[in-house]
UniProtKB/TrEMBL annotation:
Residues 1-144, 148-298 form the FAS1 domain. The gene is FAS1. This is Fasciclin-1. GO terms for molecular function: cell adhesion molecule binding. Gene3D superfamilies: FAS1 domain. One of its GO terms (biological process) is extracellular matrix organization. Pfam families: Fasciclin. GO terms for cellular component: extracellular matrix; extracellular space. PANTHER family: FASCICLIN-1 (PTHR10900:SF80), PERIOSTIN-RELATED (PTHR10900). It comes from the Eukaryota. The lineage of its organism: Eukaryota, Metazoa, Ecdysozoa, Arthropoda, Hexapoda.
Length: 309
């Protein structure tokens, strides 16, 4: 079984993973035994040696939720990840409450490289499909849930956010996102969100992705970026909306962003300008802020009006 495999690995490639579980009271091992069919993403020994990881190991509650982020109920092998990824990046729930992992497969020199994103960390699968009687173990190169990248580095490396990254490059908007003295809350439209605007407002979309219109793309991105001395998680925003009984105002670069954030059927929904926008991936932590990945940009067709002449 997977449990037995981890116990047998006391001196092997997953020695540190096993030790962290045992140092944390071992309950996670009991949970794993009770789950029946299971998939574990097990960070390699080297992954646990990272400074950012070591600094978090003293906090038991945090470690428990980090460990749970590496556990998936049910069997998930590479063939199934391929199937799930046929149309888009696969989203898979973990046993950590309301935390999902996002699998992506890309081809490098004829080889499939599988990456998995969880809690702001993008890890690569080093060894996949270590099969056990009740599930699979995949060995990964980083510990999920302990962010080590700035908002900018996250945007640059996450396959779901490449269009927003590209738009920010046109106007040097992105440069500020490396500033570690600021705290950013960035509502990032995923690539699929920009594709939807291509259908809704074809000419607006076309202009936005032309360097000549970088002034417009910058002002639209500024609307999505909250700059404050703290970050706003989705739970914070839901609580603030409930408290105000209406929209909340968040400080942005030039102005403020007026939104309502509510929870509907287990999902977060933002209301902006009478539009409802689903939050696809809440609370992606970074070292200098937090990203909420959204399903549609806060965009109106009139945002890119070009005067003749």
């Amino acid at each position: 079984t997977v449990t037995q495999f981890l116990q047998d690995n006391e001196n092997g490639a997953l020695r540190k993973f096993y030790n962290v579980i045992m140092d944390n009271g071992g309950e996670v091992l009991t949970d794993i035994s009770n789950l029946g069919e299971i998939t574990i993403l097990a960070p390699s020994n080297d992954a646990w040696a990272a400074k950012s990881v070591e600094n978090n190991l003293g906090n038991r509650e945090k470690v428990r939720s980090i460990l749970n982020m590496h556990i998936i109920k049910g069997k998930l092998n590479v063939a199934q990840i391929h199937q799930k990824n046929a149309k888009m990046i696969a989203q898979v729930p973990t046993v950590n409450d309301r935390t999902f992992l996002y699998f992506n497969i890309r081809n490098e020199n004829g080889e499939d490289v599988i990456t998995v994103e969880g809690g702001g960390v993008n890890a690569t699968v080093l060894q996949a499909d270590v099969a056990q009687t009740n599930g699979y173990v995949h060995i990964i190169d980083k510990v999920l849930g302990i962010p080590y990248t700035t908002v900018l580095e996250k945007l640059e490396t996450d396959p779901m956010m490449s269009d927003t990254f590209k738009l920010g490059q046109f106007s040097d908007f992105n440069n500020q996102l490396n500033n570690t003295k600021r705290r950013f809350t960035y509502f990032v439209p995923r690539d699929k969100a920009w594709q939807k605007t291509k259908l809704d407002y074809p000419s607006t979309h076309k202009k936005l992705f032309m360097e000549d219109f970088s002034y417009h793309s910058r002002s639209i991105l500024e609307r999505h970026l909250v700059i404050a001395d703290k970050v706003y998680t989705m739970n914070d925003l839901v609580a603030m909306t409930a408290e105000s009984g209406d929209s909340v105002l968040l400080p942005t670069y030039r102005d403020s962003l007026k939104v309502k954030v509510e929870e509907e059927a287990g999902r977060y929904v933002i209301t902006w300008n009478f539009k409802k926008i689903n939050v696809y991936r809440p609370d992606v932590e970074c070292t200098n802020g937090i990203i909420h990945v959204i399903d549609y940009p806060m965009l109106e067709e009139r945002d890119v009006v070009v005067n003749g002449g």
